């Protein structure tokens, strides 16, 4: 039986290479798919197989940003659609990049293609710049001869993912910045302003009001131990960062985020949107539903959702439809599962999942706007109340002194 050398991607998007005995190239591809491997290149063992996905020499250690990846994808799709050879297109793109990092990455990809590698293999030299989901879509486009349209869809996917990421950042950064400024102002009042006023109250013969005593005690504590408190805060932040790298801790936090009363719905919607859009893009690129689901797992950030998607892949491999697997997961919104079922019945799974992702993005945007419209004034009112209490604690002894002076 003939032997074929292969280069393939596993479910984690990592490159795997080796040999497989099969009656034909088609049978070899089927054998790899049964091993949960996505074939990128298959060649007869008698031929000189090209192995350039991860060359040992000349490796460029650089990573594209989200915006740079989107830009090069748009440029490459335009050039490929214009019938420019891939190696020439990569050279033109490398020359047009503004940052040295992007120039090095794209030039390195071009070198691999010129040496004989497929585009998906060449992109595999930079897994952080082009993750498994991206490379799988490109590999599907190369196999089907639709690389240009696939790159166009991937550009649209990246653009929408970037827009969603920006919305999430905006939703989280502004309230955090507002809270930080307010806390800084209050802390400065307690450390620098209140102690000077407390010195004036030492000559006050009458008993100070309880609110004023609490304020002075808190101010004295902060002014005395601020260095220790700052060190403890920085140390706690570092410890939390180290702790967050442990998988059980991250999994527990992600599970909590899904169960949280308000933020849970927001987290589920964001991850479902990313997953639906990723599967839509991959199936439209020519990948099977099973491979699309497995690669689409990379699109989600929440580990609990990622685990559920992995279980969905196992059910699909057993013959269960995608829509049914979504319903059984319990973490994908029912609307997405319903639209997936409609797409399966109509033969347009990719289109229906794209519409579901658009709907979830619109729902998220409306939810975010509503939440921010309530959260911003709530933060202002809360911090205003704290400042009012400080002012009141300062004014009470003054008013009491005036009453005693006027008899």
What labels describe this entry?
Receptor-associated Protein; 15 helices; 407 residues; three-stranded antiparallel sheet; mainly alpha
Describe the fold and architecture:
A hairpin with a 5-residue loop joins β1 (3-9) and β2 (15-21). The model is unreliable at 46-60 (pLDDT under 50). This protein has a 3-stranded antiparallel beta sheet. Helix content is 73%, strand content 5%. The chain is mainly alpha-helical and 407 residues long. The chain folds into 3 domains: 3-44; 66-159, Type II secretion system (T2SS), domain F (Receptor-associated Protein); 160-407, Receptor-associated Protein.
Q: Can you describe this structure in just a few lines?
A:
The chain is mainly α. The protein has helices at 25-34, 66-81, 86-96, 100-114, 119-123, 132-144, 147-201, 210-244, 247-259, 263-284, 289-296, 303-317, 322-329, 334-346, 349-406; strands at residues 3-9, 15-21, 38-44.
């Amino acid at each position: 039986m003939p032997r074929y050398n292969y280069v393939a991607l596993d479910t984690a998007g990592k490159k795997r290479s080796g040999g497989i005995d099969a009656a034909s190239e088609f049978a070899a591809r089927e054998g790899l798919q049964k091993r949960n491997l996505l074939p990128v290149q298959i060649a007869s063992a008698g031929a000189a197989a090209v192995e350039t996905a991860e060359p040992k020499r000349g490796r460029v250690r650089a990573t594209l940003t989200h915006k740079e990846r989107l830009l090069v994808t748009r440029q490459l799709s335009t050039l490929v659609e214009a019938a420019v050879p891939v190696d020439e297109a990569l050279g033109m793109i490398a020359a047009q990049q503004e940052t040295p990092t992007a120039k090095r990455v794209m030039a390195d990809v071009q070198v691999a293609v010129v040496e004989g590698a497929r585009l998906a293999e060449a992109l595999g030299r930079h897994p952080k710049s082009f993750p498994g989901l991206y490379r799988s879509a490109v590999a599907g486009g190369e196999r089907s001869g639709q690389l240009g349209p696939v790159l166009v869809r991937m550009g649209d996917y990246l653009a929408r993912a970037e827009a969603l990421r920006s919305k999430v950042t905006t939703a989280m950064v502004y309230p955090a910045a507002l809270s930080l400024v307010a806390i800084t102002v209050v802390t400065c009042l307690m450390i620098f302003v209140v102690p000077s006023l407390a010195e004036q109250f030492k000559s006050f013969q009458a008993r100070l009001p309880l609110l004023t005593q609490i304020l002075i005690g808190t101010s004295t504590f902060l002014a005395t131990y601020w260095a220790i408190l700052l060190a403890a805060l920085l140390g706690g932040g570092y410890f939390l960062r180290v702790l967050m790298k442990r998988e059980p801790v991250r999994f527990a936090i992600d599970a909590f985020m899904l169960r949280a009363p308000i933020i849970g719905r927001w987290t589920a919607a964001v991850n479902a949107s990313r997953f639906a859009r990723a599967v839509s893009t991959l199936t439209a690129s020519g990948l099977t539903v099973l491979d699309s689901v497995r690669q689409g797992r990379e699109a989600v950030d929440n580990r609990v959702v990622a685990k559920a998607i992995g279980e969905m892949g196992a059910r699909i491999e057993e013959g269960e439809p995608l829509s049914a697997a979504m319903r059984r997961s319990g973490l994908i919104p029912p609307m997405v599962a319903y639209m997936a079922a409609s797409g399966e019945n109509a033969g347009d799974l990719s289109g229906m999942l794209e519409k579901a992702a658009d709907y979830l993005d619109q729902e998220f945007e409306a939810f975010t706007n509503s939440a921010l419209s309530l959260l911003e004034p709530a933060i202002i009112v809360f911090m205003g109340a704290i400042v009012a209490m400080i002012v009141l604690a300062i004014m009470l002894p003054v008013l009491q002194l005036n009453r005693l002076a006027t008899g």
